[in-house]
Design goal:
mainly alpha, globular, disordered C terminus
Length: about 500
């Protein structure tokens, strides 16, 4: 790390910022939180010159690009000031997009990525920056006092989310791998805290749930169609290097659609299926349209050959059936879960009896779990710091394999390894609070509540076998939509739901 003292100061500033933004009440806390996050993030970038390519901004083309970027950003922020209800939609559209561009240190600051790789979440970062500026402007404007731009988020989810995000920022102080920690903060923790803060405080008019669901399903249908095209042509647009080798040596061809990894592609299809199954179970969609969408999305998921995504879909389907079905359906769901647990236990017991290796049977995942557990045992209280699990697992294993080979692939264990028992307890608190919040949404609007619960469950189940829950925008979009809908004032529409009272008017 080039400037460790600067990074340590910046991470504490950012920790205060995320706590104020997520758990704060009133304009001073929210606007102050946004300012501290922006300042802390900028200093973190400055502390580690290799984090992003910003040196090119000093050149002529870079300066022109910077000016144009500022102008476009100001224009987007003005649009969000005029139409703040568009923020959740814009975030939803850009959350999955990772265009094949990269930041460089010379000449024009942006270039096309090569060899089938994808870039960062740059469209999402742009939308979040514009939305943050718009929220700050609206918060400070007296004309916006009646629209509740800085209403507090539900405490059940805001308090654990704020504590967990602040701990993640502060953990850079003791991180085993500070460079990876800075990257995790700059590219994930800080932007996703802003995402939750701005989406959760956006207006949520009555048309919003239907619009969000329609946009999400339409996007996943496009992803599925692209995946099926790739399966038919056996040509990928974007891919990780190991996938290209795997497809060349396998009897089946895994597709990635517009993503770089089949399992990440599969996760987004599970989101679409979760929404369709939810509204289908509640009879909110024409049966023929719903059936067609299920067939399309399922076919797209099938050619990903993502076992974690398929397992997540099974769990989501059973949950939707249990929530919307009668007593017999619930009994059948419980019986299915029990049967699956018995089959899984029998399979694990049979592996050594057959003389096979659990490592081979699980594609090295069991070994990664063991190495992550060793890291947890070494630093059980506060962990090895954000972003440090892969490098720490490599150290305890004594291997010279590349660090990416040590990513745990089990998100809760990664949280435990990086943030210790404290962080793991906060994660459990967050999941419990999120469940309580989404149940409250369900009581107000059953379609939206069930869809959000199904999406969050699908992401969580897959995160047990594939990286990403706290660093996945889908998690925070789901929580932000639930928080925003629950706190937005509305009248009883005659369906028997109780009105939500206005809360958190600007201070």
């Amino acid at each position: 790390m080039d400037h460790p003292d600067l990074a340590n100061l910046a991470c504490m500033v950012a920790a205060v910022g995320v706590a104020l933004l997520i758990a704060g009440r009133g304009r001073a806390m929210v606007v102050g939180g946004l300012a501290l996050i922006g300042g802390g993030g900028a200093v973190l970038i400055e502390s580690e010159s290799g984090t992003v390519g910003l040196d090119a901004l000093a050149s002529g083309p870079g300066a022109v690009a910077a000016v144009l970027g500022v102008v476009v950003l100001a224009g987007a922020a003005w649009v969000f000031v005029q139409r703040p209800a568009w923020v959740p939609l814009a975030v939803l559209v850009t959350a999955p997009l990772r265009p094949p561009i990269k930041l460089v240190d010379s000449g024009f600051p942006i270039a096309l990525a090569e060899d089938g790789s994808l870039g960062r979440l740059l469209p999402l970062y742009f939308v979040l920056a514009a939305a943050a500026l718009a929220l700050a402007w609206r918060a400070m404007s007296k004309s916006e006092e009646g629209t509740l731009p800085v209403r507090p988020l539900p405490p059940a989810v805001a308090l654990p989310a704020a504590a967990l995000a602040a701990l993640a920022c502060a953990s850079l102080l003791w991180a085993d791998d500070p460079r990876a920690g800075v990257e995790s903060l700059v590219f994930f923790a800080l932007p996703l805290a802003v995402l939750f803060g701005v989406v959760g405080r956006a207006p949520f008019p009555d048309w919003m749930p239907r619009m969000l669901g329609g946009v999400a399903v339409a996007m996943t249908a496009v992803f599925a169609a692209v995946g099926l095209f790739q399966a038919a042509t056996r040509e990928l647009f974007f891919f990780a290097p190991n996938l290209e080798l795997s497809n060349a040596n396998s009897s089946f061809f895994r597709v990635t659609s517009l993503f770089g990894d089949p399992s990440l592609y599969g996760r987004h299809l599970v989101v679409g299926l979760a929404i369709v199954l939810s509204v289908m179970a509640l009879r909110r969609m024409d049966a023929r349209l719903a059936t067609g969408l299920v067939v399309l999305l399922w076919a797209g998921l099938l050619v990903s050959y993502s076992q974690s995504s398929m397992l997540a879909l099974i769990v989501v389907t059973l949950m939707v059936a249990a929530v919307t079905g009668g007593r017999r359906v619930r009994i059948a769901v419980v019986g299915t879960f029990a049967l699956v647990a018995l089959v899984l236990a029998g399979y694990l017991i049979s592996v050594p009896l057959r003389g096979d290796s659990l490592r081979n049977e699980t594609a090295d995942r069991s070994e990664r779990i063991e190495e992550t557990v060793n890291v947890i045992e070494r630093d059980p209280v506060v962990g090895v710091g954000i972003g440090g699990q892969p490098e720490a697992s490599k150290d305890v294993s004594g291997s010279d394999r590349p660090t990416p080979n040590f990513v745990s692939h089990t998100a809760p264990l990664t949280v435990f390894a990086e943030l210790g028992a404290v962080g793991f307890a906060l994660l459990i608190w967050l999941l419990i609070g999120a469940t309580r919040m989404l149940i409250a949404v369900w009581r107000l609007e059953s379609g939206l509540g069930l869809a959000l619960m199904a999406v969050l469950l699908g992401v969580f189940v897959q995160s047990l076998f594939y990286p990403g829950i706290l660093d996945d925008p889908l998690t925070w979009v789901t929580l932000g939509v639930g928080a925003g809908y629950l706190t937005w004032p509305r009248r009883d529409d005659g369906t028997g739901r109780q009105a939500v009272q206005p809360v958190g008017a600007t201070a």
